[in-house]
Amino acid sequence: MGTSLRVVEHLSPGGNVNAYVQTVSTIPILNADEERELAERLHYQNDLEAARQLVLSHLRFVVHIAKSYSGYGLPLSDLIQEGNVGLMKAVKRFDPTVGVRLVSFAVHWIKAEMHEFILRNWRIVKVATTKAQRKLFFNLRSQKKGLGWMTNDEVNAVAADLGVDSAVVRQMEGRMASSDTAFDAPVGEDDESVNSWSPAQYLEDESADPALQLEETNWEESSQQQLMSAMESLDQRSRDILAQRWLVDDKATLHDLAAKYNVSAERIRQLEKNAMKKLRDAMVLVA
């Protein structure tokens, strides 16, 4: 049980992967008779201690398989943990009467969990969703001879080996060569660089129609001119009341203007109402 606790500790998010690898490498490998005995105890008696020993003795194989997937840029510790999940599933389903070693049976389950993890995390946008695409994804990485694009002969050879159309191989190669780009990432410092623009910057901005902008600008200028012309038709007191009530940030109250012109607040309200009517009439005439 002490070894089991150390294994769990080293597999924790803060654990040291190298220490974990060293720990599992010290766990003895079972021979065929020991493995069959433990597997029978688990299969017929549901002996959990036997299951634990079967899992611990095969952890080193998970590490070996996980290292073969290091080229995907994902943490080794995560690949190992996913592989361990597959190992536990394999131990649970292992039938000792079939006559094969556990490692031969478990390799499928270990790789399956790692494949799922890689496809979920290698790209934000999934590059392979169907069973055929997943097969092509992993085989294409192993069969490519270099980092550059494959030649037509290489594409045809891979297509023949995997039993798919050459166009499918080209499509998957393009997906694998692409990188994730944030849809609405901020524009880079170099505005002239094409690479500094995210997809959102290429969407049509309907509000940026030059014709509409010019029309709006002309309308605003025309409205301001009409307002100024209409204001000129009012007397000084009426212009001041409207300005103080509507055209300044710190608007005056009826009582403030009543005190200024030594009249009642009701009189200021009447003057304001009359001035607004005259202003509307004057703007209509100007228009």
- Identify low-pLDDT runs: 1-14, 124-128, 189-195
Assign the structural class, choosing from mainly alpha, mainly beta, alpha/beta, alpha+beta, or little secondary structure: mainly alpha
User: Which term fits the overall shape?
Assistant: elongated
CATH architecture of the largest domain: Up-down Bundle
End-to-end Cα distance: 93 Å
**Average pLDDT over all residues:** 75
Q: What Rg, in angstroms, do the CA atoms define?
A: 39 Å
Count of all domains? 3
Question: Count of helices?
Answer: 14
Q: Give the biggest beta sheet.
A: none
Q: Write the CATH fold name of the largest domain.
A: Four Helix Bundle (Hemerythrin (Met), subunit A)
CATH classification class of the largest domain: Mainly Alpha
Task: Give the helix level as a range of percent.
Answer: 55-70%
Strand fraction? under 5%
Question: What's the order of the H and E elements?
Answer: HHHHHHHHHHHHHH
Total beta strands:
0
Family: Belongs to the sigma-70 factor family. RpoH subfamily.
GO cellular component, one term: cytoplasm
Domain RNA polymerase sigma-70: 78-91, 253-279
GO molecular function: DNA binding; sigma factor activity
